[in-house]
Amino acid sequence: MVAFPFEIKATDGAARTGVLKTPRGDIRTPAFMPVGTAATVKAMTVDQVKATGADIILGNTYHLMLRPTAERVKRLGGLHRFMRWDRPILTDSGGFQVMSLSGISKVTEEAVTFSSHIDGSKHVLSPERSMEIQADLLGSDIVMQLDECVAWPAEEARARQGMELSARWGKRSKAAFGTRDTQALFGIQQGSTFRNLRQESSDRLQEIGFDGYALGGLAVGEGHEAMCEVLDYAPAMLPADRPRYLMGVGKPIDLVEAVWRGVDMFDCVLPTRSGRHGQAWTWDGAINIKNARYAEDEDPLDPTSDCPASRDYSKAYLRHLFKAEEILGQVLLSWHNIAFFQALTAAMRNAIAEGRFEQFRRDFAARQQGA
Q: Which pTM does this prediction carry?
C-alpha cells in the first residue's frame, strides 16, 4: 500500500501527466516545486507563490535543523503553520547540504557527522534522525530518505560505495518512517553516470518499497548532455505507477527534456537565485535585465502572463530597480521566474494531454536556442 494515490491522466511517449493526491491538496504533474530553503521561497510571500500556480514547495532539513531548529518549528506548530503554507511540502533529507556546505563532514555507516556552516557546532544526521526531523518535527507531507550524494566526477568504485550506502540508509529510513496514512516517503536512486549502478539501486529501492522514487546524483556538474544520457534509461528503471522526482533540476530546457524521458517532479533554486541577480527566464530564453538594451524598453517581460510581475512592469523599470539596487527588483524577477516555471509545467501538462508533446519539445528548444 502507498500513502498517496498517483493517477496518470495521459501519456505521450515516455512523458506523463497526472495527479498525486495528498491530504493537503492535489499535486499536478509534471510539477515544479519552488525551493523554500529556510521556510521561505526567497523574496516571495506564500500568497505570491500560490498565485503562480505552485501546488507544492520544498523545505530544507539541513538549514531548518540548524536554524531555527526543527524542535522549535515543532513547538510553533510545524512547518506549514510556521510559514503559513497550507499546501503540500516536500523536505529533502539534508544529506546533500551536509556534503556540500558543512566544510567538515565525516560519513560512517551509522551517520554523517558535520559542523554547522553557521557557527561551527557539531551535529549528527542519521537516517533515523532525518526521519524524525522531517516527519515528526517539521511535519512535511513528502519525506526523502537520507542518502549520500557522491560528488561528480566519480570513479565507478566510489559511485558504487555511495549507491550501496544510500540503499542501506534507505532501508533504515523506511524502518524509522514506518507506515503512515498522511505522509509519504520517497527513496532515492543513485549510481552517478553508471547504468549498471542505477539499475542495481532501483532494484534495491523497489525491494524496500517506497511511495515515490527520486533520481539523485544529477545536476552536480556533469552537464546537460551527460544528464540526458542518464535520463535516457534511469527513469524507466523506476516503477511506472509511482511519481519520479529529479532532484535539483533545473533550467527550463532540462525540465522539458526530463519530462520527455518520463520524469514527473522537479525542484531547483534557479528561478529565485537568478531572479535576485537580474536574470529573467522567458519563452525565448534567459535575459539579463541589467543590460543597457533594456534601458528604455517599455515592454513587460510577458504581456500574456497572469503574473503581475511579468505583465505589469516594463523592462526599463525592472532594469532601473536593479541599477538602483532596489529590493523590489529582486522581488519582481523572482516572482516572474517562479510564475514562468509554473506556466512551463502547465504547458507541458496540456501538451501531453493533447498528444503533441514532441512538437512542443521541438518548438521550445528552438525558441530557447534562438534567444
A: 0.97
